[in-house]
Structure formats: structure tokens, C-alpha cells
Write a sequence for this structure.
């Protein structure tokens, strides 16, 4: 019976990972990736590995989306300034 | 499987499915709101799991999520501000529903744990969760116009 929780979380992980790959825009991918990071932390907790879950939570919920969004913004700005120079 | 784990399953499955649906479809404003919903659905679920497994140490995960979840939402609110300013990204009904659900989970756990240091920790997590949720929702709705752009 306790396996039902693991099955639910595994199904959600599979669905959200597929959705993250299927998105076209990097900013939207970062949003789905943030959801996936938090969900993976929940999966690790359900599988009785809360230490891994703690580090996954720290990296996945805030740090990875922050890096991706900063990269997206920098690239957009660079493209914009090149267009202005022409 | 006891009642706590059953409640955590419902919170993880229902909240996770709703947040996944919202974060993959629709305009950017709705996606960011759904990303914020992730925190307010998973944090009570982690608290319920800690009680269900009988391991108070698991509460630390919920504490970290209550701290870092609003930070992640604020990152998106700041860096997606151009997209968000075009649309109305406020969902106060959802915000207060999530806050009431989180408060209900914290109160139920406080009753189960009884007075002591663990109860103080649970109350701190509840205050962090609801406060962060309200602050993040206000930032998404454009409540802090002074820190836009950048």
C-alpha cells in the first residue's frame, strides 16, 4: 500500500520531465525545471533519502532556474544590442 | 500506510498534477503562478510525510522548501517582469486557499506533536510558508513596482 505514494511521485516525475523537454522557450523550460527540481526532492524523501533531497531542494528549486534565467536575459540583451548596432 | 501518508499522497498527487498542468500550458503569468503553487502544495506534503514516517528530522526539508520556494518565485518575478507586466498575474483566491491548506496541515501536526520544541519548529515553518507565499503572490501581481526592471 505504501508503494502507491512512490508510484504517484514517479508518474509525476516522468510527466514533468517529458514536459520540460517538450517546451520550446528556455524561460518556460526553466519554470518546468524548477517544478521538476522540487518534485525530485519529494521523490528522494519518499525513497527515504532526505539528505539527497535537501541538496536537490537547494539546487533545483532556486539555483538552477536562476542560472538559466540569467543566461537567457544576457543572451537576449546581447542580441538586442547587436540589432541596434546594425 | 497510515492517515498522514495518505494525506501526503493526496497533497502531492493533487497539488503536483495541478501545478504541472498549470506550469506547462497557458500564458507566462499563469505558469509563474503554478510554479508558486508548487511550494505551497509540496511543503505541507513534506511535513505530513515526516509525521507519517515517524522521523522528525524530515521536517528540515519542509523548512528549506518554505525558505527557498518563494526565493525561486521571486527570481522569476524579477527576470520575467516584462512578460508579467503585460498581464494580470494575480490569483488571490488560489493564494489564500493554499495558505489555509498549509495552516490546516501545520495545526493538525501541532496537535499530533504536542507542546515542545518540535511544535515551535512547525509553527516557524508555517509562518515562513504562508508569509513567503503571500509575498511571492504580491510580487507576481506587481505589488512591488519599485524593484522592477534591472
Amino acid at each position: 500500500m505504501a508503494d502507491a505514494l512512490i508510484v504517484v511521485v514517479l508518474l509525476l516525475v516522468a510527466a514533468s520531465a517529458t514536459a520540460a523537454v517538450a517546451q520550446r522557450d528556455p524561460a518556460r523550460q526553466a519554470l518546468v525545471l524548477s517544478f521538476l527540481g522540487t518534485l525530485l526532492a519529494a521523490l528522494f524523501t519518499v525513497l527515504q533519502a532526505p539528505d539527497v533531497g535537501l541538496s536537490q531542494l537547494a539546487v533545483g528549486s532556486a539555483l538552477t532556474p536562476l542560472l538559466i534565467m540569467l543566461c537567457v536575459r544576457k543572451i537576449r540583451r546581447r542580441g538586442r544590442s547587436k540589432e541596434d548596432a546594425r | 500506510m497510515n492517515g498522514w501518508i495518505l494525506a501526503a499522497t493526496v497533497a502531492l498527487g493533487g497539488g503536483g498534477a495541478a501545478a504541472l498542468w498549470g506550469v506547462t500550458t497557458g500564458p507566462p503569468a499563469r505558469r509563474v503562478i503554478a510554479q508558486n503553487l508548487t511550494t505551497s502544495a509540496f511543503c505541507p506534503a513534506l511535513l505530513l510525510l515526516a509525521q507519517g514516517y515517524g522521523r522528525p528530522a524530515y521536517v528540515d526539508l519542509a523548512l528549506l522548501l518554505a525558505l527557498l520556494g518563494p526565493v525561486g518565485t521571486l527570481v522569476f518575478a524579477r527576470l520575467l517582469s516584462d512578460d508579467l507586466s503585460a498581464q494580470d498575474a494575480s490569483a488571490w483566491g488560489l493564494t489564500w486557499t493554499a495558505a489555509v491548506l498549509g495552516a490546516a496541515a501545520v495545526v493538525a501536526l501541532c496537535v499530533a506533536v504536542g507542546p515542545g520544541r518540535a511544535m515551535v519548529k512547525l509553527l516557524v515553518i508555517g509562518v515562513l510558508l504562508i508569509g513567503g507565499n503571500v509575498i511571492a503572490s504580491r510580487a507576481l501581481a506587481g505589488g512591488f513596482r519599485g524593484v522592477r526592471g534591472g
In short: Chain A has a mean pLDDT of 89. Residues 3-85 of chain A form one domain. Chain A is about 90% helix and 0% strand.
